[in-house]
Amino acid sequence: MEIKLSEIPLFKNVQESDIQMLLSGIVFQRKTYAEGSMVVSQGDECNRLLLLVEGTVKGEMISPAGKSLKIEDMQAPYALATAFLFGKSSIFPVNIIAVTEVSFIIIQRQEVIRLFQKSEQILLNYLSIISSRAQFLSEKLRFHSFKSLKAKIAFYLIKEAGKDNSFRLLQSQNELAELFGVARPSVGRAFLVLQEEGLIDIRYRQVEILDRKRLIEYCNE
Amino acid sequence: MEIKLSEIPLFKNVQESDIQMLLSGIVFQRKTYAEGSMVVSQGDECNRLLLLVEGTVKGEMISPAGKSLKIEDMQAPYALATAFLFGKSSIFPVNIIAVTEVSFIIIQRQEVIRLFQKSEQILLNYLSIISSRAQFLSEKLRFHSFKSLKAKIAFYLIKEAGKDNSFRLLQSQNELAELFGVARPSVGRAFLVLQEEGLIDIRYRQVEILDRKRLIEYCNE
DNA sequence: CTTGAATTGTCACAATTGTTACATTTGAAG
DNA sequence: CTTCAAATGTAACAATTGTGACAATTCAAG
Fold it and tell me: Rounded to a whole number, what is the distance in Å from the CA of A30 to chain B's nearest CA?
C-alpha cells in the first residue's frame, strides 16, 4: 500500500494539493522494483533523490568475491542517500536491494534544487532530514570515543539523569548493549562494578547517583 | 589574521564582490571573543549560524560537577554546528570555548534562509558541508559495526586494495589505530594474525592479499 | 651514503569484554 | 491476583585488547 505523499518527511507540513502542484512543475519519475532486484549498484553516481514510498530495501556492501555485508534496512517512507546527493563524494557506497516489492519517486538533483526554489518548506524539510541524520550519527559516535565501557555508561547515566540523582532507565540493557556496541552481560557487569565502587545504586531500572563527581571522572578513564 | 571570505567553505565559488553584495542584503553580526571566553553554552538554542573566520575553538561537554570532556578542536575557516541549525534538536550539546582570540560572523537562521534564496551556490555549499559531514561520520561509524578488530582490518584492507592484490598502506599504524579506536600494537598484532593464517602477506606497509575470499569472510566475524 | 627520527615488529602480562548458561525478578495481560 | 514472557542478575571461563617496553627497520634530510 503506497503511503500518502504528505507522510513523506520531505513533504512534511506541505498540503497534499500543494505537493501535487509542485510535483507537476518538475520532472520526476515513479519506478517500481520487484522483490530482490537491485535498485542501486555500489559505485553508481548519486545524482538523483530516491524517495522510497512503498516497501523495504536493504543496503549491502558487495565485495569482488561476491560476499555481501548487510549495512542497514530502510522502509517507506524514507529518503535514500540524502547525504550523497550534495556531498563531496557522490558515489553510492552500497548496493540497494529491494527486500519487498518497492516503489520510488526519483528526482534528478537539478530538479530537487528547483523544488527547493519553489518551496521553502521542502528545503527546510530536506535540511532537517540531513541535519538530523548528522546529529544521530554524531551522537552515536560519541559513545565510541570513550575508552572503556564503564566510561560510556558513566557518561550515559549522567546524561540521562539530568539534574536529578534518581531516575529510571528508559532503555533495556539489550538496547544499551547495542548502543554501546558490546554484549548484554557486559552492560550489567559494568553497572555492577559502578555499584560496588559506590558511585551508583542500581536495582533493575531504578538508578540512584550516589557520587556524581566521581562518576564524571570515570568518563575520562 | 582574518581570512578572506571566499576561503570560507560556505562562500566557495562565490566571487568576493558577490559575497559583499549578498552580505549587504542581509542582517548579520561580526563578533570577537577573547582567548578562553565561552562562545556558546551547552543548552543554548542554536538559532544562528556561526562562521569561525579567525582563530581556534574547542568543544567541551560540561557536567554539573564542573569537570569537562574535550570533544573536538575546530579552526578557521569553519562553520559551527551546521547540523543543529536545521536539525530536530536545536540545542547545543557542548560548550564552545575560544582557544585563541577568535572572530565570528553570526547569521540568524532566518537570514541564512534568505541567503539561500539569493544565492543557489551558497545553498549548494551549505548542503555540501552538512552532507560531507554526514558522510564522514557514517564512514567512521561503519568501522565500529564490525565485531572484532581483525574484521575491521579485513574490511579496511579490502576497501584499500580495490581490484589489486598488492598495494601500499597509505596510513600509518598509529592512524589506523585511531580510526579503529584501538591501541597501536593491537593493529600490528591483528596484521600478524591475518598473516599467520595465510590471508595476507604484510611487510611494513607493503600488503599482498593472498586469499581474498577468506579475508572477506573475516568481515562477518 | 649517513644519520636520526619516525614507524613498525614483537613480547609478556594486565585488564576488559565476549560467551554461554541459568536463576531471579519484573511488569503487562488476562 | 495469577501467569508468563521478557528483562535482569550473576557466574565461570574463553578470547580479545590494552599497556609498556624495547628492538628492528624504514625513510627522508642532509
Answer: 25
**Lookup: nucleotide whose C1' is closest to B191 CA:** C9
Please write the tens of the pLDDT for every residue from A14-69: 999 999 999 999 999 999 999 999 999 888 999 999 999 999 998 877 544 444 55
pLDDT, tens only, A135-162: 888 888 877 778 889 999 999 998 898 8
- CB-nearest to A158 from B63, B88, B181 is B63
Quote the domain boundaries for residue B164: 146-218
What is the spatial distance, in angstroms and rounded to an integer, between the CA atom of A179 and the C1' atom of D2? 35
The residue among A86, A113, A214, A221 with the most chain B CBs within 10 A of its CB, best to mutate, is A86
Q: Which residue has the cell 555549499?
A: B125
Do A12 and A77 have their domain in common? yes
Question: Per the CB < 8 Å rule, is A123 touching B131?
Answer: no
**Cβ contacts of B79 on chain A, cutoff 8 Å:** none
Please check whether residues B127 and B210 belong to one and the same domain: no
Q: Are residues B134 and B170 in the same domain?
A: no
Sequence-ordered list of residues with C-beta below 8 angstroms from that of B91, at least 6 positions apart, any chain: B43, B44, B45, B46, B84
Domain co-membership, A119 together with A180: no
- Given B118, B139, B160, the domain boundary residue is B139
Q: State the total domains in chain A.
A: 2
If you measure CA to CA, which chain B residue comes closest to A145? B181
The verdict on whether omega for the bond into residue A77 sits within 30 degrees of 0, i.e. cis, is yes
User: DSSP secondary structure string, A86-111?
Assistant: SSS--B--SEEEESS-EEEEEEEHHH
C-alpha distances out from residue B183 to A190, A220, B146, B189, Å: 21, 16, 16, 10
Q: Which of B120, B135, B144 sits opposite A89 (nearest CB)?
A: B135
